[in-house]
Amino acid sequence: NSTRVLAKFDHLSTFNRYLSETGVIKEVDSRSSITLFIPPNAVLDPVIASVGANNLLVIADILRYHCVLQYLEIKEIRSMTNATGIVLATLYQTTGKPTGEYGFVNVSVSHGGLIHLGVPGAASNATVVKNVTQHPYDMSYMELDHPLMPMDLGIDQGAAPSVNNLTAALKAKGNFNTFLGLLASTGVDKALRSMSAVTLLAPDDDAFKALPPNALAELSQAQKIALLQFHAIATYFTMGSLRSVATPLPTVASSRIGGFELNVSTAGGKGVSFVTGLNRADVTDTELDTPPVAVYAVNRVLLPPEIFALAPAGAPGPALSVAPSLAPELSPAPTPGPSSSPSPSPSPSPSPESAPSPSPVMVPAASPPAPPSSETPSSSSSAPEEAA
């Protein structure tokens, strides 16, 4: 965690603080290898004051421009840099906002061995002062004597036009009606359109039909919102970058209540899958890829363990229930009741071990807040796959 690493260096506290306040820390920690070039407080504070301490959109892009998307060390930079320098991609580039080469930074080495950084095609305005610390070959931290400022900073800081047309690609396909209806009824579609970058994982209508009966009906409005936010990542990812990204990935739901993270799997070939701990969804198509927005069709509804729990291992069908350990922000803790969960029908249901129904069912959890170990996401890896 980069904020814990930088917390040891008081003179870098401004950069560290705004990593958290802007949410850029989640983008940094989602990368498998990255180098942070960090200006100290003495030179970064005036920049923050000039753009406004509350202008987090602009500050976020300033921070992103200091994050190079590969692991670097001083010796490595000196060995790989030619006479004119090398151009490296930054985290700012992944937002889709910069034009031309403005999302890249030029790195050059002077005859004295000093490392200089700047906007490509312009004079370098920052020099590496020293190494801060490295964690080979994932994270590297270096200190700069001046901040880096992308040329088009401040242009198009709001949502890009492609974000506003986020759902248009899905509407055109005609087989995402359930997902689109839920986005509209919960207001999550409006929240997505307010974001500067997003990767959306869209289950098709068949994926919703495959859910157990009453799966959605048993959820509160807050749980539905969290479920939909679980299908969105507040960063633009191409298919190629998903294949190499470090996981787990925070989702939009993570930023509100914690947890709700996704793992990315590329096992078994060139395809990309998302794994929740309860089930797995494969990307079946790219519906939209226009920076800073990507929309990928998936063949299953992603089930977060924070909302759903598997039925006990002895149940005859792959039943799911609303997880009793759900965070208070989503729903109140269930009232302790009998050891067996009641059926939605008026008559009492038999215990899971003797339940005769062969089809998957979803019922509200009535067990105490600490569920039995057989109902937690840590049960066998094959059971969640069957439940999906």
TrEMBL record:
Chief subcellular location: membrane
The record's annotation in PROSITE patterns points to:
FAS1
Q: Where is this region: Disordered?
A: 326-388
Stated name of the protein: FAS1 domain-containing protein
One of its Pfam families is Fasciclin
The lineage, from the top, is: Eukaryota, Viridiplantae, Streptophyta, Embryophyta, Tracheophyta
Q: Where is the composition biased (Pro residues)?
A: 331-374
Keywords, ordered alphabetically: Cell membrane, Glycoprotein, GPI-anchor, Lipoprotein, Membrane, Signal
Domain of life where this protein originates: Eukaryota
**GO CC entries:** plasma membrane; side of membrane
**Would I find Membrane among this entry's keywords?**
yes
Q: How does it sit in the membrane?
A: Lipid-anchor; GPI-anchor
Domain (FAS1): give its ranges. 1-133, 163-302
Instruction: Decide whether keyword Magnesium is in the record.
Output: no
Subcellular location, in the record's words?
A: Cell membrane
Q: Where is the composition biased (Low complexity)?
A: 375-388
Q: Which SUPFAM superfamilies does the UniProt record give? A: FAS1 domain
